[in-house]
């Protein structure tokens, strides 16, 4: 699996959510609404989710294992940090 495109839409409002991201996998499959969150331990991603009837949030799409999640997170956060650094120059 290769992530062939990452599109970052920064969130201008103050708060923990910093951006909403879309990724393209193998130039064939797109996942929208991945969130970049600034948490207590730094930036991380949250996969697209919806609120269930019991009030809990459930992921709509997500990696099956932690290695894949880490790979996706690393690629997204590198792109996000690159865009933020470019804006500061």
Automatic annotation (TrEMBL):
Q: Reply yes or no: does the keyword Lipid metabolism apply.
A: no
Pfam families attached to this UniProt entry: SpoVG
Has keyword Metal-binding? Answer: no
Under Gene3D superfamilies, the record lists: Stage V sporulation protein G
Q: Which UniProt keywords apply?
A: Cell cycle, Cell division, Septation
The similarity comment for this entry is: Belongs to the SpoVG family.
Summarizing the function annotation, the protein's role is: Could be involved in septation.
Q: Per its UniProt record, what PANTHER family does this chain match?
A: SEPTATION PROTEIN SPOVG-RELATED
Protein name, per record? Putative septation protein SpoVG
Q: Which organism is it from?
A: Roseburia amylophila
